[in-house]
């Protein structure tokens, strides 16, 4: 495979990590998730952000110098230095109710009864779902409009796909868009 560096991004729960992993497997290249660099390792996870000044240097030391890779997540607001290393961006969308149901299921798998009412992570889970549900808020300029502005300024090709479609179809569309043959 020719060297490709692709970012798969979109709202939380849209399937960017799942598609990112599938593309990395298809190309036999490394995959990383932005969360690996954004968050410090904590228990429970995702409670303490890594300082912004440490994120890109960490990515540059561990990941970015490779000739090909797939990164999933968002760099908007802190990772612009990595944009120059991208060949292309895939932006996934999905309806809010679809994303929230995926997130609910994912958290039950990850944390079990801790996210249920009365569980040790119930409040954090509720707050996370509320935050995730506000992504498409059109009453005030929110994260979706900020993502659209950010994407428009990337000066990189952007493929927009519905994350509600089957994973095999999404992978095939990205591979075809980038001129590769789907290995199915």
TrEMBL record:
Coiled coil: none annotated. It comes from the Bacteria. InterPro entries: Cytidylate_Kinase-2, P-loop_NTPase. This is AAA family ATPase. It comes from Saccharopolyspora gregorii.
């Amino acid at each position: 495979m020719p060297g490709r560096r692709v970012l798969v991004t979109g709202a939380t729960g849209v399937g960017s990590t799942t598609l990112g992993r599938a593309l990395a497997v298809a190309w036999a290249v490394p995959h990383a998730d932005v969360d690996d660099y954004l968050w410090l390792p904590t228990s429970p996870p995702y409670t303490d952000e890594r300082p912004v000044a440490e994120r890109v240097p960490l990515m540059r030391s561990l990941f970015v110098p490779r000739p090909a890779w797939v990164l999933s997540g968002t760099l908007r607001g802190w990772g612009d230095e990595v944009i120059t290393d991208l060949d292309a961006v895939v932006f996934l969308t999905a309806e809010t109710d679809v994303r929230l149901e995926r997130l609910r299921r994912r958290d039950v798998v990850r944390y079990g009864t801790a996210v249920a009412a009365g569980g040790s992570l119930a409040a954090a889970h509720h707050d996370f779902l509320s935050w995730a549900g506000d992504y498409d808020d059109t009453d005030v300029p929110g994260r979706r409009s900020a993502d659209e502005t950010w994407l428009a300024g990337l000066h990189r090709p952007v493929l927009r796909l519905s994350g509600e479609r089957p994973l095999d179809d999404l992978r095939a569309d990205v591979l075809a868009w980038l001129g590769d043959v789907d290995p199915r």
